[in-house]
TrEMBL record:
GO biological process assignments: cell-cell signaling
Compartments (UniProt record): Cell membrane
Molecular function in Gene Ontology: gap junction channel activity
Protein name: Gap junction epsilon-1 protein
Keywords assigned by UniProt, alphabetized: Cell membrane, Disulfide bond, Membrane, Transmembrane, Transmembrane helix, Transport
Coiled coil regions, renumbered to chain: none
Spans through the membrane: 25-44, 75-97, 109-132, 171-192
Membrane topology: Multi-pass membrane protein
GO annotations of cellular component type: connexin complex
Membership in a protein family: Belongs to the connexin family. Beta-type (group I) subfamily.
Length: 205
């Protein structure tokens, strides 16, 4: 791919054709990624080291932590961010290869329809991630986790484990749910903006 294509691709990703799309890129790239990258590491970075069970043995702690966290929240949210970016990146890659200017996207039905489809896919992916987050993490992190250690052939089947910084993790969970909702609302608003521009209620930039 030539440098011109790469430049068009990067410009399309950083500056979408709609005002709300540009705000979504700013929110997604600065606020959401910064929140996850910086605060997420601070809250979840040492969770496995401080996760302790009764009895406090390494094999029990590791077994119960893997049961408590089938996937770590940082990995899940990082995958969510990458996957949600795929539809938009694919569209802008297509636009770069076809030398489609940003102002043409809202003027031609096929391009605007393709772009709306990519935004709609983002909404679906965010909704699926929202549902998966509920299934994996719930809405609250409890201070005590009851772990089933029967598979370790211990004399006991259930043991108590202490979850470190459970209140901070609950706040972080709620924040990530909120970010997902905000992103979905922005995507819906972007589709509405495109529709208004197409029927003439708003002037195309």
């Amino acid at each position: 791919m030539s440098p011109n294509y790469m430049r068009s691709f990067s410009e399309g990703c950083l500056k979408p054709p709609t005002v709300i799309g540009q705000f979504h890129t700013l929110f997604f790239g600065s606020v959401r990624m910064f929140f996850l990258g910086v605060l997420g590491f601070a809250v979840y970075g040492n969770e496995a080291l401080h996760f302790s069970c009764d009895p406090d043995k390494r094999e029990v702690n590791l077994f119960c932590y893997n049961q408590f966290r089938p996937i770590t929240p940082q990995v899940f949210w990082a995958l969510q961010l990458v996957i949600v970016l795929v539809p938009g990146a694919f569209f802008h890659l297509y636009a770069a290869c076809k030398s489609i200017k940003q102002e043409d996207i809202l003027q031609k039905s096929f391009y605007s329809g393709f772009y709306i489809f990519s935004v709609f896919l983002r909404i679906i992916l965010e909704a699926v991630a929202f549902w998966l987050q509920i299934q994996l993490f719930g809405f609250k992190v409890n201070a005590i986790y009851m772990c089933d250690v029967g598979a370790l052939e211990k004399k006991f089947n259930i043991t108590r484990c202490m979850v470190p910084e459970h209140f901070e993790k609950t706040i972080f969970l709620i924040a990530m749910y909120t970010f997902t909702v905000i992103t979905v609302v922005l995507c819906v608003a972007e589709i509405f903006e495109i529709s208004c521009r197409r029927i003439g209620f708003l002037k195309t930039q």
